[in-house]
Amino acid sequence: MTRRACRVEGILIVQRRAVTAVLAAAALLVTAGCSSGDDWEPEGGGSASADRSGPAASSSAPASAQAAEETPPAKGSVKVVRTVTEGLKTPWGLAPLPEGGLLVSSRDEGTITRVDEKTGKKTELGAVPGVAPGGEGGLMGLALSPSYASDHMVYAYFTSDSDNRIVRMLYDADKPAGEQLGAPDTVFRGIPKGTNHNGGRIAFGPDKMLYVGTGETYVTELAQDKKSTGGKVLRLTPEGEPAPGNPFGSPVYSYGHRNVQGLAWDSKQRLFASEFGQDTWDELNHIVPGGNYGWPDVEGRSDDSKYRNPVDQWSTDEASPSGIAYAQGSVWMAGLRGKRLWRIPLDGTKESARPQAFLEGDHGRLRTVVSAGGGKLWLVTSETDGRGTPGKGDDKILELRVT
């Protein structure tokens, strides 16, 4: 099939030659299976995707379809304990503070707000200078310095007039509200920007290096260009230099990505990333140094061994994934268009390796999920991002208990 579709975050714009061509292409993807070059194994061995040649089974799938599956998804549970706060405008990044409180960014307003996780009280720290919101761009990912206890530095990823960049700012809670952010120090600049596909997630890894998910800004060839920082996972020092041991001696850690918006590590310090597909498959990938994840030549699984296959894949209406977190032996993945929270267990048995969907349609679009420790997650909704249908109280931060 000649690809003539363009999908952005939660929106599908399609021009297809014929329905039969789509079905044929889908069938081809299903039968492609797993690449011999995909060596990811969940805890305990085996392949999480060995039994799943199609999209992840939704908890709301027809009974006949569920009965046809050889292995039902493992039983887990998600309970919404409470609404932590509400009335947020285009929330995107979330960073729990070690002293208590949650920092949340507003994509369109360009501000960072501290939320008291006990009372829900909101205190605006201030606006980040230079943010130029538009489309999917604006103030996005947040991360705390690995030396936050001594330096109180907050890192932020945002879209400026010319590029996407990363800055760090001193957070001084003793100053008046609205004046608690110091002047931004630019750590890294020059990430391509576009109306859409700006990536935006940042996180410090177990190695204390800064990992960055970027998008290819609709210029698909950037994803395979190792000299470009678009369509990549980057790995930087806290000062913004290429991290020691990077595979190409540059900031690039992995490539061939369309739009990475989720980063998380499991208990074995393996890095996982969520990725928006175009009109067929969204992905959860295990990220390895130097790995090529196929875009734009491959969407979803492939039988070409030069590309790494996803751990799992979903039809685009089931996921459109943004943030991910690791808790209780599973990756938890927030779905925008899918309006659900996916659990992807990593313990290695076929039964538990099957993903499971929760909260389907209960809270609308879901943007960010962060581990809160003790079997709890913070979950951020995204109904005010221009693609949702805001209801009373939107947007919100929810506290979940998961198993």
From TrEMBL:
Q: Where is the Glucose/Sorbosone dehydrogenase domain?
A: 88-387
What keywords would UniProt list here? Answer: Signal
Q: Which Pfam families match?
A: GSDH
| InterPro entries cross-referenced by the UniProt entry | 6-blade_b-propeller_TolB-like, Glc/Sorbosone_DH, Quinoprot_gluc/sorb_DH_b-prop
- Record's signal peptide: 1-32
In which domain of life is the source organism classified?
Bacteria
Q: What is this protein called?
A: PQQ-dependent sugar dehydrogenase
Supply the source organism for this entry.
Answer: Streptomyces apricus
Q: What is the lineage of its organism?
A: Bacteria, Bacillati, Actinomycetota, Actinomycetes, Kitasatosporales
